[in-house]
Design a protein that fits this description.
The complex is a heterodimer of chains A (421) and B (312).
Chain A: H1 2-26, E1 29-36, H2 43-56, E2 60-67, H3 71-81, E3 87-90, H4 92-100, H5 113-119, H6 122-126, E4 129-130, E5 133-134, E6 137-143, E7 147-151, H7 152-157, H8 167-181, H9 198-204, E8 210-211, E9 214-215, H10 220-234, H11 247-256, E10 262-265, H12 268-276, H13 278-282, E11 284-288, E12 299-305, H14 313-323, H15 326-336, H16 359-367, H17 384-399, H18 405-419
Parallel strand pairs in A: 1-2, 1-3
Antiparallel strand pairs in A: 3-12, 4-5, 6-12, 7-10, 7-11, 8-9
Helix pairs in contact in A: 11-12, 12-16, 17-18
Chain B: H1 3-35, H2 57-64, H3 66-78, H4 81-96, H5 103-115, H6 118-129, H7 134-150, H8 171-196, H9 200-208, H10 213-224, H11 226-241, H12 245-250, H13 262-271, H14 277-302, H15 308-311
Helix pairs in contact in B: 1-14, 2-14, 3-13, 4-8, 4-11, 5-8, 8-11, 9-10, 11-14, 13-14
The chains are: A alpha+beta (421), B mainly alpha (312).
Chain lengths: 421, 312
Amino acid sequence: MNKKLLIGAGILALTGALGISSLAQTQKTEIEFWSWYLSPKFDPYLKGVIADFEKVNPTITVKLADKQDTMVRDLQAAIALGKTPDVVNLWGDATASFAQDGLLTPVNDLTTNDALRAQFWDNTIGMFNVDGKNYGYPWYGWTDQGVMAYNTELLQKAGIKSPPKTLNEVLSMSKRIKTATGAYGWLPPIKDPNGASFLGQFYLEGLAIVKDGKAAFNSPAHARLLTKFVNLMKADIIPQDLLRKEAFQLNNELYSQGKSAFIIGGAQALTRVKDANKDIYGKTKVVEAPLGSAGVQTGGSMSLVIPKASKNQKEAALFAMFMTNNASQVKFSKLAGIVPTTKGAEKDPDLKAANPNDALDVATSLVSGAGRFITPGWKSPKNTDDIYKNFNDNIEAAFLGKKSAQTALNDAVAFWNANAK
Amino acid sequence: MRKSNTIILAYAFLAPALILMALFTFYPVIYGSWLGFTDYSQKNLSGEVPANFVGLDNFKTVFADELFRTGIWNSLKYLLVVPMLQFASLGVAVLVNRKLPAITFFRAAYYVPVITSISLASVMWDWVYSKDGVLNWGLKFIVGVLNAVASIFGGKLEFDAFGWLNNPDTAIWAIMLVTFWRGFGYYMVLYLGGLQAIPLELEEAARLDGATPSQTFWRVTVPLMRPTILLCSLLSTLAAIRVLEEIIVFTNGGPLNSTYTSLMYVYSKAFGSKFAFGTASAAGLLIAIVGFFLSYLNFKLTQEPPDRSRKA
């Protein structure tokens, strides 16, 4: 009898143990993470961070998918089909758009404000604020000015001994470089396909964009600045292709071919030069970027958002916090020259330039502490696409001589104020 | 086999294709048309907020939008590529439909642009159209030669190089040439297939009756090619009215909306910041109506003329 009891108890214990272990297995939660344009180059980095996360959180597994051009459409389709990913890498305008339509969970509902503030700079959290709620965990950032890389050989040929310190100097040196070498100097953003990049020139010079909730970029000072750039394009000091191509892309292309002398922007631009033309990269030196008369700069950051329809919100928030923490962003900065949005990166010894002769190393160290200064400069109006398209059309009309600078700005302001509702 | 069995069997064979078409063609068309009468946008995606029926409001919005009218006008302008494409590809198909040394090489070579990706083509054509590109270089050379001649008479020609894709007067024509280049080989192959299906005896009989090569071509070959001509012109007309890929890659609708086509309007409404799928669907329906009308015109233009000799 006792023997039978023992065997029975043994079987029960074994079944129980198996049951518990299988229960533990079934309780493992899988979350899906969509990154944006990071594969294949940064696959090892992403997989490494995911492995670290899974080690710390053994009950969660992360499935990674990298989306590219179709990110927004794929996310819309996934939401419509009820197969939403749990963590998604979006950018400012897309985050605002999905949040305004009630498709995202406010991050404050999942992570305490204290935890957010301990990890990120306040200005970066605020970038994803829609109607008083934050919808994104700030991920890797950039500054539109940040650093300036310059081709030492082209400057030497133009007889320039030291790099420019202000944007005005950049423009006057650009003229000298064009005359002496045929290469362009700087390629300022004029009409990038997404956004209204010429507004950035106003911001850098301290000229108002919006006053009392109304567009106000049509003063004579604004018109003078626009005219100055129009004349530079007429004289071919800046290329007309800037009306058709993104400045960042075109600048990278021309700089890598030795056809432009300056790159002003984030350190990440240099990774492309390094990949494209080692010879030019070797002739490149990096200094802090020259600024406009206002002494300010613009920038932005990516966000990790959690769709409202995600079934694993808690786990998603855990992962988003891990992916965006200081250690993960510092590693990424080392690889890609991004600006970490986290507190502590500015002091991280890993981001100090190990090799003062390596342009990328110097650039990364220069921008590593810039997270606290990242600001888009101005808030996009509602009805963004129509308003920015109209702004760009007017700017283009001024550059192509179809409208005077003042008329173009007056028309853009009138449209903005009539449609930003 | 009884007639009813035959019918059942026929439908059984048709069923897989019909199911696929119902799922991937009829349903999207019907649903997309329905969306044109609603205010469906991104906020309705999750199903929590239903879309509202708005009647003809979207159509009114579209008609009132100057950009849509610009888009339709540019798309109609783009149709000019169709006759050029058809005449050229038919002409070259006739030329390569001969037994000549290395003719298969030429047939393949003409087809290469068809299989070239648009991104690669865009890089190449960018070199051609840029301010210091091949086209301006060629024109400068020609102007140089002409000036050498003109200088004898004391004249001088001026030519300032410019970016062909940056100029609102030339951008759309420059992109049309790329469409021409990309489509030419495709239609040539279709025409070649049509030409090779014509029985040789018919052309031989015409020649024996004393017809000149030109008469044989216009009186025998072209009439027999009518179905292929209809197919090719229909396909190229619809492709021209729906052009988008080239526009996005080269100019994104600029400069000054000179290349902004009707489908670009649909695309920007559907995938812009507002995600106005309702407005986009309404615009899409209007473009479809234009497409139907143009297809009807194609049928009419390629219809066989009534045989007057029989009436007599």
